[in-house]
## 1
Amino acid sequence: MMCDDARLLLHAYLDNELDASQSVAMEHHLRHCSACAAQHADFLQLRAAFTQASLYRRAPDALRVQWSFPEPTSAANAAPARTRRAPIALSMAAGFAAALLITLPAFYALHRHDNANLTVEEAISGHIRSMQPQHLMDVISTDQHTVKPWFAGKLDFSPRVKDLANAGFPLVGGRLDALDGHDVAALIYRRRLHVINLYQWPVSSETAAVSVSQQRGYTVIQWTDEHMRFVAISDVEESQLQQFVQLFRNDAVSPLMR
Amino acid sequence: MPSDFRPPASTPRRTHFEVCVLPYLDAAYNLARWLTRDDADAQDVVQEAMLRAFRYFDSFRGGDARVWLLAIVRNTFYSLRAKGASDDAHESFDDDTHGLIDEQLSPEARVLLAVDVRALHAALGQLPHPLREAIVLRELEECSYKEIASITGQKIGTVMSRLARARERLKTELSRSSTEACRHDV
């Protein structure tokens, strides 16, 4: 590869847009051309500078409120949740739809008592609260051996703390919070410019299936491992939060990582 | 600008809209804010873009709602800007005249980049719109080349060369401001 070609392709390489053979050619060129390697280093530095959070301009609350629904928080306010299912019903055969509509209120009644929805609501509120200035962290550390002991004496359980920096989810700190009537440990991770809050508290049930829900632009993933309830919330893409949860759980069962 | 607009009462369509589109409100605002460089203007653009999105939501045939919404935000910005016809409204951009500059980042600029986000902020604001939107979509929204091409209506090759030019320009700008900062100190 010649430097002239490399000048342009360098950016595609940086952006992970080259195919395998071009990537190999570029890596080879960068090893042998100090000028292009220096360019590459400069642009890596530039990219790192872009991850500073203040560059990303989030929508003001007023705008968000204007375009958000009031969420159904009580039994009296069940209608919006039911309408959310209406398009599915309409797409079915008419008789089937009628049958489905009759069962919907019962279906909803069953779900209403499930406090998972309430937890999602509270998790989102907690996450939004945590994004206010000075609210995010009580202990600031990227070291799991600093964060974990910090919780000792503040909670009646010892939270699981993992550093997933190698996978692109660096741990940045921890905080005490309250969720669903419990005192909970909140771990704060970052994914590029995004914040991930991971709440945990002990429960009596052994395990529960992973549940994923989305509300107000946030993804919430809940699960239970070894008598510990976990709720992860973030505005990252759902697939990335899934990956985070997977990594955290995998790590948790691997004896080598303890 | 219909800033007192309230979306209509809850309907299945609106609920569907909220689920599909609302998650990308931050992305919409970020792009609008970087294009307009002004809070109030950005809110106007997003407000108008959301109205358009809501109006055309029936024509949205699945796919990536973020790309769809960002394309609307971008079009809204350019159409409102043309209507306003401000002094720089006819900023023309020729992909061929903005060549690559062979310059390396000075050590001072490297330090500046690491410590002073304001310098990058200012340099980014100075880029011509076609370069600015490309780099904002790439670095802040983490869009792929294909997504940027789809949002901006450009070919992938154009996206690549604009990103290259945007980064070269930022580098040059940062090197310049670091030199000025040094002079100022002396």
Note: Chain A has three domains: 3-50, 60-113, 115-257.
## 2
Amino acid sequence: MKRFFAALLIIPVALFCGCSVKSADEYYKETEAKTKSVVTVSVNCEKAIEYQHDGERVNPDILKNYEVSFKDGDTVFDALKTACKNNKLQFEYNGSGDAVYIKGIDYLYEFECGDLSGWEFSVNGEFPSVGCNAVKLSEGDEIKWLYTCDLGADIGNKYKGN
Amino acid sequence: MNTFRNLHPLTLLCYFAFMIVFSVFNFNPIYLALSLFGAVMYAAVIQGAGVVLRSFVGYFAMFLLIAVTNPLFSHNGATALFFINDNRVTLEALVYGAVLGLAIVAALYWFRSFNEVFDSEKYRFIFGRISPGLGLVFSMILRFVPELVRSFRDIKSAQRAFGSNQGRVKRYLGSFSAVITQSLENGVITSDSMNARGFGLKHRGLYSRFRFTLYDGVYLGVAAVLFSIACIGARGFEYYPYIKPMEFSAMSILSVCAFGALSLIPFIFEVKEGIKWRISVSRI
């Protein structure tokens, strides 16, 4: 019985060891090494404000053309992470690898403005149909995170099916 | 002695439904604390303070598990405690988890008392009107689990008494198979007995010893009024992104008071009847 409980305990401990744990101060003090290559990140929740119309949120531009420097091989997800960290913005993601999904940015979550609402991203005006951790950055990319209330149709990325 | 459990089944069912529904759907720690307090006090009266105190350990473990698990899966909230893989673990999520745990523990304590109070006779009375067959099956099924536990314990102690020197696993398996055999046999005997007594004949009557008296009506009415006041004036807490306590107005304070009174009804009932009993005994 004792052995059984020990084995049970190992699982969370092992999971915990695979995570990087930092205190809030530590996390926000970290600064990425500056590199020459830069992308801009914007986060915009205009559609959510329109949808909620009497909510507390008034400023649609959570981030506007914020410049982030990046290393070779960094992805759209890394850029968002750095941008949020430098601006002390809250965000939440799920998953790992290519399948990272952004659930919420700045306390604005998916499904808060109807069943078809959530965050989508565009790179230079194009909406890639893959996860944000599967898109590599290149110099001068313009990344926009847009909140949609209609599965992308209201921000210029109508869902066309498979 | 007139106790809370002797009230009419309908009154009891409504009362427990009020308490459990309110506890599960209202994520307001003030109401939940009142609900838990009422449930624990009543359980202490009917089951004994010792039993309830011992049960605290398990419920507290469950509460802690829920409180700690929530922030690991929900990263919403303004106050970051620390970061795991770039996801923040927040105070708000921890508090929300604690409230969730409180709600579940409160509901479980009400169910504990409910199981104690609501015996098979009452089940049959409630469901017998809608569907007599269902009521019977329900009351028989609910009887099975405690029955199995009891006979398992009996068989185990019998085995120990005749000094079985088998290993632990083998002994348990032996007891288990004996229990299964016994309950199968009992099932056959029960059905024979039921047939012999005319189960399944047409024009069966339903006898119940419960009468809805004025007393029950008054209790049901008071509980319903308190419940409506509590519902109408109820204000919730907001947890994300900042914790925003409920607004206090005359209505919401009235609602809290009404709910507090509602949750203490069984306890007060028992204590009042207990005192009456003492006085009447001392007069003899």
Note: Chain A has a mean pLDDT of 89.
## 3
Amino acid sequence: MKFFRVAMAASLLAACAGQTASAATGNVLFNGTITATCTITINSNGTMTVSSNLQSLSSHNAGGSAGSAQVDTTGGVSLSVDPVTTTTVPASDTTATTWTPTFATSGAQTIAETGTATALTVPGTSTVAVNLAGTKSGTNRFSAGNYQATVTLRCE
Amino acid sequence: MRRIAILAAGLIAALSPVAATGQSMTPMRGEVRSFTDAFAVRVFPGNPYNQRIRVEVHVYDQDFQPVAARITPSAFLLAGQASRPVLVVVPFDGANERKVRICTESIPFPSEQTQIRAQICGKFFGHRRF
């Protein structure tokens, strides 16, 4: 009987010795989709100063400063400025003014100063300089008082 | 009494909405199929600042003309670093498809010569199915 048990154990060991441990492998897939995103953060507003001939009120003039904004994007969007529609002028200024908003970017993507919609294709953070120029023609002049205009910076 | 008045003034100043401008909005693209006379889009305006700002949501057509859409809510205060859902229901107005821009706008800084209004617009395309 003892011999029988030993023989059985030995035969079982012999049967298992040739078997390899079986392991299965599988792939786990991960998918991610990033849609176009855009965040605008206004850093500062701009300041316009008048030219010596009193026909230009612009952030480009001496003493003036551009408004500044930061744009964070994945790319695949466009940046633009709207024509200026909201202005406040002194009561003494009764003549027409042509307002021209422009923007330029630096950082992730560089865009030279323009007034037309421009694609932002490079992902990252760009700094936008927003300028505004008001001009009068003929004999018209800017007069003393407070001027204010709103420029819409759009990312779409 | 004077201290209370100063404290109250300070609290009012601290709690008043900050008129800073800055926006984000997701999603910025979308295509919706609808079996009704309108299609709905849920957007999430975000506030990248640390202080709360006032946000307005508007809907425009492709020529930036206002669209009579139902926006809930259309104007609200948004806490710093927060976002919230806004439901926009756009009528087809008899058409089989409609392209609209849903724009999140902010209120510019006051008392500055050249103000900048930030506007994030998403483009959405609604198809009508019968």
Note: The helical segments of chain B are 2-15.
## 4
Amino acid sequence: MHQDRRTRAPEAATGADRSAQGRLGNAALQERLGQQAGEQTASSGDEAWTRGRPLKVANPAPTQPGRQERTVLGVRILGTDVSPSALDACERFVTLTLGTRPDVQERLADAGVALVIVPRGRPMTELPEFSALRGGTTFDGRPWEQVRGAGGMRASGGMWAIAVPEENLVQVEPDNDSYGSGYSIGLHEFAHTIQSKGLGRAERREITALYEARRAAGGPWTEAYGASNDQEYFAQATNCFFGENGRVGNNGAEWLRTNDRPMFDFLVRLYGAPPEAQPAR
Amino acid sequence: MRRLPLLLAAFACHAPEPAVPPIATYEVYAGADLVLTVRAEPGPLTSTAPPPPDGHVPSHPFLSAGAHDAASESQLRAILDQSTDVEDFLARLTAAGFRVERLGAMP
């Protein structure tokens, strides 16, 4: 895994180049993601990234029977009987969020973090990684059998498994995505794990302080849910930053920059410049 | 009676400012894994699951908390439902084998 992490991580760079290079990964990855997603790009894969292309794949590849697995920046992505495009979508938000921070990549890899894609139409609790949730409820009182997605739990082999529903990663018919296009569950859930397992204590405390300051200021928030606590504040701000908070709340890095500059600045330090601000290469 | 407003005003001038109660915040661990963050004030309860599609977030009468570990959520909620106040909740968590760490008063 360590060998893989080194080969997939962006090369060291400094200054403005670092965020762009980290976000873009390598050209081969860009090209492959663009092709597999079956999407049109104006003239190059890089330009598509600069426009903040939605994470949800509009024209996914057909479902591939059997197990698929890849490792990106130290994070495993697993799917069984799902479209390969669902793995592509996960690969995109992993690259977007971790590309500039080798230290976060290292912590997540050490924690055994894996994104497990829940096939559309199949209850999350039927998957072996999440079978321990059967019969239980979420902390806010929902039966796990009715939930599609989870921010992480210990599974076999020391894996920290994050559940991401396929129907939110790829556009399928009939559309049974409870959140619709424009809101990424995977990004939200992954942000929770970045906060709890990827950041050091100082940055976790900084998020708490940012949340307290925002409360003291009376907002504004991305939406009411983002005001719940520092975890949801950070996760929803992440979605907003990448333009993946559509149909849920305020959306887009520009909204965050204008209305919550301290969190915007923190996220720029963590993720690099937002997609909208990326200069075309 | 005429002196009462003056007395009240005098008391108000000399009474100490009521201290703003700090909001105690706790992190709860299962082994090395952070599983819950608790704030000792009434407020929302949140899960590691995605936001409820209907937008409804339950509120609790004596604490607010956010879960970090899906596998612990059901047990944590059951313990919370048995608890009478924050101190009781934290004591029950400790008795159940969780480690509770106070972050200190938040400004």
Note: Chain B touches chain A at residues 25, 33-34, 36-37, 39, 43-53, 55, 57-58, 64-77, 103, 106-107 (CB under 8 Å).
